[in-house]
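User: Continuing from earlier, I have the next pair ready.

Assistant: Great, send them over.

User: Here they are, in order.

Assistant: Folding the first of the pair now:
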Amino acid sequence: MSDVAHQFSLPGLTILDASDAPPGYLAVLKTDACPKDSNENCCRFCDWRPECQKGSHAARCMPYPAVLQDGSLWERKDGCSVVFKKMEAEHDV
């Protein structure tokens, strides 16, 4: 994992580079966010999933690059597999 990967942590969750997540969301390691005893698809624990299912791909969640139609690569800067968690506004905390 690169130095960029561990920006800061919250209890039980490793939060990654905020610039590598959709606006208003945090990238959290799948290994932290998904229950280890669950057989469910890890995407079910992602707050961005409804937007992703609509085809809105503001950020990459998978650790490997995807090749876009123009031939460019779309990849995470940190190479981590993540889910996106909605950031809480200060008044919501």
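And the other member of the pair:
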Amino acid sequence: MFGKARHYTHGEYYIDSDGLINGFAFRQQDTSPVGLLIVQNSQVQAEVDAKEFFEVASWLTLPRRGYVGFRCSLKRLLKSDAEVSVLVKETEQPLLKRSAPFDRSRSV
């Protein structure tokens, strides 16, 4: 019941009108990129690692010097009625889906 401790993953993502998923994910005390699953209607469509520079929050003190971002295009896969979610590969923890794009002038 009490196996290996799994750390919480901080993360959010946004899907724009062109089907581009843009977001970030990190664990506070971990230097490894977070592996993510892009899931659409309960089917894994893609796997990505959160290892791109996340410029929107570059003013924050993020692990790995801000290389915690990810992007994935679902343009060819996205349907109007699609349920899309982003899950941490290791734990299946869902990331928070934003209703508005990231804004550099405001906090994440």
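Worth noting for the second one:
The chain has a mean pLDDT of 84. The radius of gyration is 14 Å.
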